[in-house]
Specification:
Elements (H helix, E strand, L loop, with lengths): L9 E5 L3 H11 L4 E6 L12 E4 L5 H8 L4 E4 L6 H9 L3 E2 L3 H8 L1 H10 L7 E4 L2 H9 L7 E5 L9 E4 L13 E5 L3 E11 L5 E3 L3 E5 L6 E6 L5 H18 L3 E10 L4 E7 L9 H4 L4 H9 L13 E7 L6 E6 L1 H5 L4 E5 L4 E2 L4 E8 L3 H14 L1 E4 L5
Parallel strand pairs: 1-2, 1-4, 2-3, 4-5
Antiparallel strand pairs: 6-9, 7-8, 7-9, 10-11, 10-12, 10-14, 12-13, 13-16, 14-15, 16-20, 17-19, 17-21, 18-20
Helix pairs in contact: 1-9, 2-3, 3-4
Length: about 400
């Protein structure tokens, strides 16, 4: 087992965004030799990986050639050529999380079927071939407003999702095979990140409450601990644990939940990788989500997920009306606030709502953390050098 935590280990990470960057930062503590595959030579991971390989994660040849000389391959994004990952697995490369599980999660329809088959609570759903199929169902009285349409594949960070509240919003329907869910009356949205190693050990992180930007449908702020009853904390952790056990999963899995107005937990969807809802764990939990993912895929003992201190995380998003070379306003003022930890991802270009970094705010009480986070949110602005769109 000690062999795994030396520079002899060749760890591949497919896609080099901010999640990959933070994973590499943890891997460097164990002197792991890291390889990153990404089409963008200026991606956040490129400058800190041991080796950068330019290539397309959706291209079979690029992914296969990247992984075939490595010992362990993982990823920070779902949209990857599955056939290449499966071939690597068949040739003895340790690809984790398992590509067959990734194939299921890539398809939101297969995800929903998995939850239904395994008695995991989720909102009622139906499948439709395309936009016209949905329109026919509405016309025949088989589908009623309001509902949520999700493209089965390709959606990411709020894209591929359309909320249809009434007939006046019908022009928002998306084209493509879809899952259509009944509109849930949501009280709160939470997430639980859970890890499992090959030994079957499971550790879950404390649930976080997510607050979304209503326009971009991106997480604007997350709060930990979540303001929910202890009974729901236990139930959410048990459901997340049950999902990884049923999947025989190895790695880190983020499970997003709705809490409806009746207090019921419903699984929304899952992500087989480090997740935006776990950034705060770097400072606020004994083991960060990135270290835990490494522990899980290398079959090491899982670390403690004890919350050291209340935390609030806010995404630093590109300001509306600004496209070009990035400039950050308000970093100095925000760093002067006690408990504020700034993470800038290193993306050179900004555009509206692009994730450019995050700030984690720590305080003795959650109320203090929220107050400071609001101050940071109003202070830091992600703009461009010339201010022109």
């Amino acid at each position: 087992m000690e062999k795994l935590v030396t520079s002899n280990l060749k760890l591949g990470i497919i896609a080099g965004g901010q999640l990959g960057k933070m994973l590499i930062q943890e891997a460097s503590k164990w002197d792991i030799n890291t390889f990153v595959l990404d089409n963008d030579e200026n991606c956040p991971s490129a400058r800190i990986a041991s080796h950068f390989v330019k290539g397309d994660q959706m291209d079979f040849f690029d992914v296969y050639q990247f992984g075939r000389r490595l010992e362990v391959v993982t990823y920070e994004i779902e949209n990857i050529n599955i056939q290449a990952l499966q071939k690597l697995k068949s040739e003895g490369i340790r690809v984790l999380p398992d590509p067959d599980i990734l194939a299921m999660i890539q398809d939101k329809g297969l995800q929903k079927e998995f939850y239904h088959k395994n008695n995991i609570p989720t909102s009622p759903f139906s499948f439709y071939r395309d936009k016209q199929d949905i329109l026919n169902a509405i016309g025949d009285g088989l589908l009623n407003y309001p509902f949520v349409q999700k493209l089965r594949t390709g959606g990411y960070d709020g894209r591929g999702v359309s909320v249809i509240t009434d007939k006046d919003k019908i022009d928002r329907l998306l084209e493509g095979p879809s899952v259509v869910e009944e509109m849930v009356k949501i009280e709160k949205e939470i997430a639980v990140i859970v890890a499992r190693n090959d030994q079957g050990d499971v550790r879950g992180f404390p649930p976080v409450e997510m607050v979304f930007d209503p326009v971009a449908n991106l997480v604007e702020m997350l709060v930990c601990p979540a303001g929910i009853p202890e009974s729901l904390v236990t139930e959410a952790e048990e459901i997340a644990g049950e999902i990884v056990k049923q999947l025989n999963y190895t790695g880190l899995l983020a499970v997003e939940f709705f809490i409806d107005t009746s207090g019921n937990l419903l699984v929304n969807e899952s992500a087989p990788r480090p997740h935006n809802s776990g950034h705060h764990t770097i400072e606020s939990v004994l083991t960060s989500q990135y270290e835990q993912h490494l522990r899980a895929i290398l079959n090491l003992p899982l670390g403690s997920t004890h919350l050291k201190i209340p935390a609030v995380m806010i995404n630093l998003l590109g300001e509306p009306g600004y496209v070009g070379q990035v400039m950050y306003e308000g970093l100095t003022e925000s760093m002067a606030i006690e408990g504020v930890k700034i993470h800038v991802y290193g993306k050179k270009e900004t555009w509206p709502m692009r994730k450019m970094g995050h700030a984690t705010v720590l305080a003795e009480t959650l109320e203090q953390a929220i107050e400071k986070a609001q101050q940071v949110k109003s202070t830091i602005k992600v703009k461009t050098w010339n201010g022109n769109a």
